[in-house]
Every structure is written in structure tokens, then in C-alpha cells.
């Protein structure tokens, strides 16, 4: 059995107990984020391989999208999905995973659990992890929060046409550093796909919700709508009764510093000239 | 059709959180990970319900605070209460 450590957004996650097949699968996906040194990890995850599928959620016959089950307890969070169960201890944050998978289905189970663990880890560090699309022009970071169907993947495809740097079309983190907010890529992608690659943090210049419209425009919204859009976009944490008050407070603090606006866009690249213009002075301010 | 009585009391559902922000209100519905926003009047109604006022008392408060007649206030309050009950944001107490 072997272990590996994956690092991103300032945290290290060590997965131990992987069998050779599981190890190869994880390496193939997260190769660019693997750590070679022995620095103490921030989160340890023990993986226990139990090949008998009895007691695990069965595999469907064909491809399927499903929601993992997450139950929030006082001391721990229980997670279950196809072929795996897991328990995440809140303090110190660590996890145990049981799985009957060692083929390509394992990678799906691994990523599903990793998302939850990463959300808890980053939240404990003061961050907000949002269902969102994010890209950068190299100097400014733009985050667009929204759930499935909001247009995140479409926006990423359009941004790619414009040769903007895509962070993720699924999950991105907003962290704080020296009183400013930074945008951090998470190694999870939705329909846009792509292999996780390391990204530096970018200043969070634009924080936006998405709406469909015939012509691109950016408009303001009320504080309540802004906070609600952010809270609704923070998976797992927004369903955790022990953390939801803190989450709402953090969202309110964030929009005081980086107001959330609504981007209406059609399926074309005209949105970028509107965004670039709307936030053009932000570049100068951030560069000073 | 609403079956709410005018003497009924309500409270925020134990699985929901409510907060007022710049006069508007936000419900976080934890079980679903959903969020609802209510406008200024809606936030006022929820605050009144949280203060253990009955629907009738809330309607009276609305007419005193806003320039609306009792019938309009009753329609608005009943409609909001029914919607919040359906969403699991409030519950009968």
C-alpha cells in the first residue's frame, strides 16, 4: 500500500493506503499537483480497500450523474457514493474512506470525496469554496458563481476562445491574504474538463453571478441577493448547520469588499469587452 | 389553497436560518443547500412571526407600517406564509 500528497490553494492532502491500481489512477489525474517532499500534510486521508461490493452503493449499468449523500454530524461528516463510504472528522480534520473500487470508477469516488474534504479544509482556513467558473487575464481574476445550468461551462468555453486562462468551471476558492481576497483554482473540473494544473493565486477582481441575456451587460444587485447567491454556491458548507452562520457572515464580508454583480451574457464572446471595461480601473488599483 | 388560520403562529424551521440584510431577508435552507430571498415587506413579516405574533397581528402591523389596506396585507402575508411553508423555511408552532 502506498501514499501520496496532493497540494493546492495552500493546503496539503495526504492519501494513504492506496493499492497500486488506485495509486496509478490518482497519479494520472493529479500528477501536476503531487508533492515530493515530506512536509507534514494538513489533512490525512486513510483509504481502506474492501473488494467485496456488498454494503456499498452499487454501480449503475451505464454512465450516470448522481449526488453523493452527505450527513453532517456533531463531530464528523459522513459521505457515501457509488462504491465508497467515508467519514470526515471535523477536528482535527481527517478522513477515512472505505471503497470496493480499484478501476476507473475509483477515480470518480476519490474526486467526489476529495471535493468535500477540500471544501472543509479551505473553509477552516477562512476561505469560501464556490460552485463557479473562474478565469484570469493574467493580472485579474474573475469568478462567476452559479449552480448547474447557470452557464459556467459555456462561459469557460467562450473565455478559452478569447485565450483567457481557465481555472475551473466547477469549483474555485476565494481566500484572504493580507486583507485582500484572492482567487484560487481547485483541481476539479465540470463538463469543461481538463487536467488539474498548478495556478498562482490571482487578485479577485470580479465577483459575478450569471444570467442569460441577448446583449452582454453588468448590473448591480441587492446585498441580500448577493449573499444568497454566494451562500447557495458553497456546496456542503451551506448544508452544515454548524457552519452556515459563519458562511453567511463571510459572504456578507466578502461583498462589502468585492461587490457581487450580475453578468448577463449571450453565447458569444462579447461579454469580455463589457467585463474588461467594467473592471478596467480595478487592474490599476490592484497594481498599485 | 391556504388553510392557515388568522390565529396561527409560526417559527423559522429548525433546519433553516434567517437573517436580515439591508432590509431584505435571507433564508438558508440547510437540508437542500438552498437560499431564499424575501423583500423588505417579507423580511418584516418574518421578523413579526419570529416575535411570536399571530398572522392576524402581523397583518395589523403591516397596515400600520405600510400604506396598504387590511385585505391587501392579508393577501400578501398569507401568500408569503404559504410559500415559506412549502419551501420548509418556516413551520407552524
Describe the structure.
The complex is a heterodimer of chains A (288) and B (93). Chain A has seven helices and 15 strands. Chain A is α+β, with helices and mostly antiparallel strands. Chain A folds into two domains: 2-124, no CATH class; 128-287, Rossmann fold (3-Layer(aba) Sandwich), CATH 3.40.50. Chain A is globular, with a radius of gyration of 19 Å. In chain A, 43% of the residues are buried. The model of chain B has no long low-confidence stretch (mean pLDDT 92). In chain B, a hairpin with a 4-residue loop joins strand 3 and strand 4. Chain B has one domain: Outer Surface Protein A, domain 3 (Alpha-Beta Complex), CATH 3.90.930.60. The radius of gyration of chain B is 12 Å and the shape is globular. By secondary structure, chain B is an alpha+beta fold. Chain B has helices spanning 40-50, 55-65, 70-87, and strands at residues 10-12, 16-21, 24-29, 34-38, 90-92.
Brief overview:
The complex is a heterodimer of chains A (288) and B (93). Chain A has 288 residues and is α+β, with helices and mostly antiparallel strands. Helix content of chain A is 29%, strand content 33%.
Attribute tags:
heterodimer, A: about 290 residues, alpha+beta, Rossmann fold, seven-stranded mixed beta sheet, five-stranded mixed beta barrel, 7 helices, globular, disordered C terminus, B: about 90 residues, Outer Surface Protein A, domain 3, three-stranded antiparallel beta sheet, two-stranded antiparallel sheet, 3 helices, 5 strands
Amino acid at each position: 500500500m502506498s501514499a501520496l500528497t496532493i497540494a493546492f490553494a495552500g493546503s496539503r492532502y495526504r492519501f494513504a493506503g492506496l493499492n497500486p491500481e488506485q495509486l496509478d489512477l490518482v497519479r494520472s489525474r493529479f500528477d501536476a499537483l503531487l508533492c515530493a517532499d515530506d512536509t507534514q500534510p494538513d489533512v490525512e486521508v486513510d483509504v481502506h480497500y474492501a473488494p467485496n461490493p456488498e454494503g456499498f452503493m452499487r454501480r449503475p449499468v451505464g454512465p450516470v450523474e448522481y449526488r453523493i449523500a452527505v450527513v453532517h454530524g456533531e463531530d464528523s461528516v459522513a459521505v457515501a457514493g457509488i462504491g465508497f463510504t467515508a467519514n470526515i472528522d471535523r477536528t482535527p480534520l481527517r478522513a477515512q474512506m472505505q471503497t470496493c473500487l480499484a478501476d476507473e470508477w475509483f477515480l470518480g469516488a476519490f474526486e467526489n470525496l476529495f471535493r468535500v474534504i477540500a471544501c472543509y479544509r479551505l473553509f477552516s482556513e477562512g476561505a469560501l469554496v464556490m460552485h463557479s467558473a473562474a478565469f484570469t487575464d493574467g493580472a485579474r481574476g474573475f469568478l462567476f458563481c452559479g449552480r448547474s445550468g447557470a452557464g459556467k461551462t459555456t462561459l469557460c468555453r467562450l473565455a478559452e476562445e478569447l485565450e483567457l486562462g481557465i481555472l475551473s468551471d466547477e469549483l474555485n476558492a476565494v481566500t484572504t491574504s493580507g486583507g485582500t481576497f484572492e482567487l484560487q483554482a481547485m483541481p476539479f473540473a465540470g463538463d469543461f474538463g481538463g487536467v488539474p494544473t498548478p495556478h498562482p493565486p490571482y487578485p479577485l477582481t470580479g465577483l459575478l453571478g450569471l444570467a442569460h441575456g441577448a446583449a452582454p451587460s453588468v448590473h448591480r444587485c441587492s446585498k441580500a441577493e448577493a449573499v444568497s447567491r454566494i451562500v447557495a454556491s458553497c456546496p456542503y458548507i451551506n448544508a452544515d448547520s454548524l457552519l452556515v452562520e459563519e458562511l453567511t457572515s463571510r459572504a456578507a464580508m466578502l461583498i462589502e469588499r468585492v461587490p457581487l454583480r450580475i453578468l448577463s451574457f449571450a453565447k458569444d464572446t462579447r461579454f469580455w469587452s463589457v467585463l474588461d471595461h467594467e473592471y478596467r480601473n480595478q487592474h490599476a488599483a490592484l497594481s498599485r | 389553497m391556504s388553510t392557515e388560520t388568522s390565529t396561527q403562529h409560526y417559527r423559522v424551521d429548525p433546519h433553516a436560518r434567517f437573517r436580515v440584510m439591508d432590509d431584505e431577508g435571507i433564508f438558508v435552507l440547510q437540508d437542500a443547500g438552498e437560499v431564499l430571498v424575501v423583500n423588505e415587506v417579507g423580511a418584516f413579516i418574518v421578523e413579526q412571526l419570529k416575535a411570536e405574533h399571530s398572522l392576524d397581528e402581523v397583518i395589523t402591523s403591516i397596515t400600520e407600517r405600510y400604506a396598504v389596506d387590511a385585505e391587501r396585507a392579508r393577501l400578501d402575508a398569507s401568500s408569503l406564509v404559504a410559500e415559506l411553508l412549502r419551501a420548509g423555511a418556516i413551520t407552524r408552532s
